[in-house]
């Protein structure tokens, strides 16, 4: 009996000792001293295990708020993520710079501002495109237009990001050439990428690869 009591005493003493050592050697989650004290993918921030330390710890469209990854209001990856009349700039949806009021139609018999077309994956102006831009320049001057919008478009092949950049290069090429022809109107260049593409084969895609020209 005496041996049993002694054994029980030793067991209780060891248990208390181990518990004391454990409480002194570590902290109870989510308390921490190092990232290694936290679950995988978490960070030790101000001695607490949290989901993130900086925005870089969160995915696209999220930011680190009080240790938690939260959706960034108004975040966008392309124009498709924005509403009508908006465009994606630096991952934020903003109002398009274009006027929301449609310009009046040209008078009967007046020249038209026809689109300029490009080759596949190209923003280079060929002879046909330069001739068309010369017609556009003459039309702008004869109608006395004060502001013109140049919108670059692409066919649907390629990524949205690439096509947005390609559309912008096309619009900028058209703008530069019109200025070289002496067009004094305020020329604005923008891109809608593949947003308005509707071709299903080369005959349709060739019509998607263009810069639309309109009065602002």
Describe this structure in words.
Helix 3 links the parallel strand 8 and strand 9 (186-193). The protein has helices spanning 2-25, 127-143, 160-180, 202-208, and strands at residues 43-45, 48-50, 62-65, 68-71, 86-89, 92-95, 116-117, 147-153, 186-193, 210-215. The chain contains four helices and ten strands. The protein has a four-stranded mixed sheet with strand order 7-10-8-9. The protein has a two-stranded antiparallel sheet with strand order 1-2. A two-stranded antiparallel ribbon has the order 3-4. It is 32% helix and 21% strand. It is of the alpha+beta class and 216 residues long. The chain is elongated, with a radius of gyration of 32 Å. It has a domain at 116-215: 2-Layer Sandwich (60s Ribosomal Protein L30, Chain: A).
Number of strands: 10
CATH superfamily of the domain at 116-215: OmpA-like domain
Rg (C-alpha, Å): 32 Å
* CATH topology-level name of the domain at 116-215: 60s Ribosomal Protein L30, Chain: A
Tell me what the CATH architecture of the domain at 116-215 is.
2-Layer Sandwich
Flag low-confidence runs: 9-25
Number of helices, counting only DSSP H or I runs of 4 residues or more: 4
Helix/strand-derived class?
A: alpha+beta
For the sheet with most strands, the description reads: 4 strands, mixed
Q: Please, what is the average pLDDT?
A: 83
Strand content: 15-25%
Distance between the termini: 103 Å
CATH class of the domain at 116-215: Alpha Beta
Proportion in helices: 25-40%
Shape: elongated
Please give the order of strands in the largest beta sheet.
7-10-8-9
Order of helices and strands: HEEEEEEEHEHEHE
